[in-house]
Every structure is written in structure tokens, then in C-alpha cells.
Design brief:
The protein has twelve helices and 16 strands. The protein is an alpha/beta fold. The protein has two domains: about 270 residues, FAD/NAD(P)-binding domain (3-Layer(bba) Sandwich), CATH 3.50.50; about 140 residues, Elongation Factor Tu (Ef-tu), domain 3 (Beta Barrel). The strands form four sheets. Strands 10-11-12-13-9-14 form a six-stranded antiparallel beta sheet. It has a five-stranded parallel beta sheet with strand order 6-2-1-7-16, covered by helices on one side. The longest helix has 21 residues. Bound molecules: flavin-adenine dinucleotide (FAD). The site of flavin-adenine dinucleotide has 34 residues, from α1, β2 and α10.
Length: about 425
């Protein structure tokens, strides 16, 4: 018997993958007995916000992930396809129909039992446990998880700066270096003159921000203030904060810049960089528009936008292996947003990996680690790779191993990466 705590997107995919192999599964879902601040309907696999599963295009990272999930017989993507509504190149669903259909499929499966109950302690009567309680895991269970992960191992808030693809940073403007030439010169620095800074500042303070849910509002801590809030304190506040230019000389002018934006390496391969101090509540479109005004980022590809929201997630690089299995207790798996994958489709993908691995484990077969050249494999790799600044990650081409040949045209490059992913996934399935 496998016990799954949380019947959301990840939990339902995991349950289906296990049950279809004839193995008994029990799902504990607290709804309708108790609802998180964002959940409102009684069904499983509730879509809490946007009804979009993002692009269906092969050349889009999330589109590729969905294509891979279809190849792997994902129940949730199948239900999304069946309940889709017109949305151009995106896969959008009728949210009620989607959750209802997933609930129906799970309920009619003779190997799955659903118990509507909030879990406050990790059950001891099950051989294998999957924790998939999502970004709004209840307080009591979070305390239990903390016992497994240690206090440092569980985060309740996500304050992440945007991440850009290194290849798309204009290095005719950007230069490597640390303040006063100290350290390893691992930052990429983007200098600004007075005019560029003032234009940027003006757009930043007037940009549109997202409306936060009541439960997401909290006091601002100085060390973790949204960049736009800091900017609104005065035109020079950023120049005395994260955009401080002291200790730098712009190699193009041999002078100290008026302000400097620093980018920090975000993965081992140095293919993606985050913008230091730019945690933000700006709308995604506004982030693209305003942050692209920073000299050097005019053509930057944003693989992840900045966010500041309630999000329970564990420190996966320390705690999990590439099958989302807890290293300190092999009977426990985590799946979904709580592992640090971010987004509906990414949560489903992690549920897929967990489900398939539990099946193999019960059948005494080897672990399934998808090739890192696939989107599903690169996400698993990302969450299990040492990273002392670990932040949740969505599907993007920046976390995949790059192609051997350098291709400038982004569309052609993504097409080749996507073709390679599908071919490698198909090959791995034949083994
Ligand atoms: C407010 C908000 C908006 C979001 N908007 C988007 C978006 O627009 N697009 C996007 O791609 N992603 C979005 N996300 C991120 C994320 O993709 C979704 O939260 C996604 O639903 C995560 O899937 P999951 O299976 O990990 O968790 P969930 O789908 O949240 O499922 C977790 C389930 O566990 C249950 N549960 C929790 N605690 C317990 C317990 N102790 N015992 C029993 N059951 C429990 C919950 O009731 C829930 O049904 C959003 C997240 C939040 C919080």
C-alpha cells in the first residue's frame, strides 16, 4: 500500500501512475473538511489561479514538458486536453470540468481509495509515503515535515529575483568582476550611466504590480524588500543599495558607473543568472518591459520571473535525490510544488517521476532517472543538484545541457533542444 498525502495535481498523477500497475493507493485529501486559503472547490486537482497550462508549442519549455508527459501517459495532461478551451497556442482548461474529470478518473479506479481528512502526522501504517500537499501545506503537517528536514530545510515564503539566460546577456556591455576586484569575479556586472538609471527608475516606480491575496500580505523585511518598494523610497535609494556602483570601473569608459546591476550565477553550468536584489511583485509583462531597459538585458531571455509569495517548499538539493526520494528515509517521497518545482505542469511532472519510481521499487526494478536532456529529467536534476541559493524553478531551456553547436537564432535552438529531448525520452523508454 502506498499512501499519498494531498490530492492536488502532483498527488493525483502519482496515484494514477501507481494504481494503473495494479498497486493499491490511498490518498488523504483534506478537502472538503478543510480548505487552504487558495482552494475553494471540493474536487481533487484543483486549479487555484490561472486556468492556463501555458504554451502547447514544442519550442516552448512548458510545451515540451507537456509533450513529454503525453508520451509518458500522464492522466492529468490527458484530462487537460479533454477539457481544454480555445486559447490560441496555449493549453487552457475549463477549471471546473478539469478537476471534475480528474476526480472521476481517480474515484473510479478500483486501486485507489480517497480519505477526506487533514493529515497532521505522517502515518506509520504505510510502507511508502508521498507528501504532495503543495505550496499551502497545513501548519501541523509543516511542523512534521520540519522534523524530517530540520528547521533550515523548510521554507514558507518565496522571494525570488528574475533569472535570465546567460547566452542572451549582451557581454559587450556586461563584464565579470567583484567589488574592488576582490573575490572570484563570478558576478556579471551591468553598468548604467545617469540618464539610463533615471529612465529605468522612472519606469520601475510606475510599473504595474500584482495584487496579492490577503494571506500573502506580510510585513516587508529590509533584507528582502521588493525592488520597486525600495525604489519608491527615493531616486537614489537603489544606488545606495543593490545597485551601488562603488568599487567598480566600467571597462568601456574606465570610469565608475553611475549605478550597477549585478547578476549572480544560478546553476552549476553557469547557463542562467539571477538579478541580485530584484525580488519583486511586478507583473510578469512589466518585469520583461522594465528590466529589459537595463543595459545588457535588452534582448535577455527571462527563464523565470521574480516572485514574492507564500510557498511552502523544502530544500530539495540537500534532501532529495533525482527521483524525489528523501535521502534520509527512503520510504518517503515528495512530489509537486513542495519540492521546489514551480507551476501546474511542473508539479504534474514531478508526480509522474515519483509514481513511476514507486512502481519500479515495488517491482524490484531499477530507479527511473530521465535523461537530463529531457525537460522532465532536467527539472529532477535541478532540484537534486547542490545549490546554496536554491529557489523554486519552472521548466526552461536554461537548465538543460546546451547543444554542442552554438546557435544564435533562439527559435532554431529551442527546436533542436526539443527534438533532442523527445528523441532521448523515446530512446530511454525503449530500454
Ligand atoms: C495562490 C497560488 C496561485 C498559483 N497560481 C499558479 C498559476 O497560475 N499557474 C501555475 O502554473 N502555478 C500556480 N501556482 C503554483 C502551483 O503550480 C500550484 O500551486 C499547483 O497546484 C501545485 O500542485 P501541487 O500538487 O504541488 O499542490 P496542490 O495542487 O496545491 O495540491 C495539494 C493538495 O494537498 C491538500 N493538502 C494540503 N495540506 C494537507 C494535509 N495536511 N492533509 C491532507 N491534504 C492536504 C490540499 O487541499 C491540496 O488539494 C499557484 C500557487 C498558489 C499558492
Amino acid at each position: 500500500m502506498v499512501t499519498i498525502i494531498g490530492g492536488g495535481l502532483a498527488g493525483c498523477e502519482t496515484a494514477y501512475q501507481i494504481a494503473k500497475e495494479g498497486i493499491k493507493v490511498r490518498i488523504y485529501e483534506m478537502k472538503p473538511e478543510k480548505f487552504s486559503p487558495a482552494h475553494t472547490n471540493k474536487n481533487l486537482a484543483e486549479i487555484v489561479c490561472s486556468n492556463s497550462f501555458k504554451s502547447n508549442l514544442h519550442t516552448n519549455a512548458c510545451g515540451l514538458l507537456k509533450e513529454e508527459l503525453r508520451l509518458l501517459d500522464s492522466l492529468l495532461i490527458k484530462c487537460a486536453d479533454e477539457t481544454s478551451v480555445p486559447a490560441g497556442q496555449a493549453l487552457a482548461v475549463d477549471r471546473e470540468n478539469f478537476s471534475e474529470l480528474v476526480t472521476k478518473k481517480i474515484k473510479e479506479n478500483p486501486n485507489i481509495e480517497i480519505i477526506n481528512k487533514e493529515i497532521k502526522e505522517i502515518p506509520e501504517d504505510s510502507e511508502i509515503i508521498v507528501i504532495s500537499t503543495g505550496p499551502l501545506t497545513t501548519e501541523k503537517l509543516s511542523e512534521e515535515i520540519m522534523k524530517l528536514t530540520g528547521v533550515q530545510g523548510l521554507h514558507f515564503y518565496d522571494a525570488a529575483a528574475p533569472i535570465v539566460e546567460k547566452e542572451t546577456i549582451n557581454m559587450n556591455i556586461g563584464f565579470y568582476g567583484d567589488r574592488y576586484g576582490k573575490g572570484e569575479a563570478c558576478y556579471i556586472n551591468l553598468p548604467m550611466n545617469k540618464e539610463e538609471y533615471e529612465k529605468f527608475w522612472n519606469e520601475l516606480v510606475n510599473a504595474e504590480i500584482v495584487e496579492l491575496h490577503e494571506f500573502e500580505k506580510r510585513e516587508i523585511f529590509e533584507g528582502c524588500m521588493p525592488v520597486e518598494v525600495m525604489a519608491k523610497r527615493g531616486i537614489d535609494t537603489l544606488r545606495f543599495g543593490p545597485l551601488k556602483p562603488v568599487g567598480f570601473t566600467d571597462p568601456r569608459t574606465n570610469e565608475r558607473p553611475y549605478a550597477i546591476v549585478q547578476l549572480r550565477q544560478d546553476n552549476k553550468e553557469a547557463s542562467i543568472y539571477n538579478i541580485v536584489g530584484f525580488q519583486t511583485n511586478l507583473k510578469f509583462g512589466e518585469q520583461k518591459r522594465v528590466f529589459s531597459m537595463i543595459p545588457g538585458l535588452e534582448n535577455a531571455n527571462f527563464v523565470k520571473y521574480g516572485v514574492m509569495h507564500r510557498n511552502t517548499f523544502i530544500n530539495s538539493p540537500e534532501l532529495l535525490d533525482e527521483t524525489y526520494n528523501l535521502k534520509s528515509n527512503r520510504n518517503i517521497y515528495f512530489a509537486g510544488q513542495i519540492t521546489g518545482v514551480e507551476g501546474y505542469v511542473e508539479s504534474i511532472a514531478s508526480g509522474m517521476v515519483v509514481g513511476k519510481n514507486i512502481v519500479n521499487r515495488i517491482k524490484d526494478k531499477t530507479k527511473i532517472v530521465f535523461p537530463e536532456t529531457t525537460m522532465i529529467g532536467s527539472l529532477s536534476k535541478y532540484i537534486a543538484t547542490p545549490n546554496d541559493k536554491f529557489q523554486p524553478m519552472n521548466a526552461n531551456f536554461g537548465i538543460m545541457p546546451q547543444l554542442e553547436e552554438k546557435i544564435k537564432d533562439k527559435k532554431i535552438k529551442y527546436e533542436k533542444l526539443a527534438d533532442r529531448a523527445i528523441e532521448n525520452l523515446k530512446n530511454s523508454l525503449q530500454k
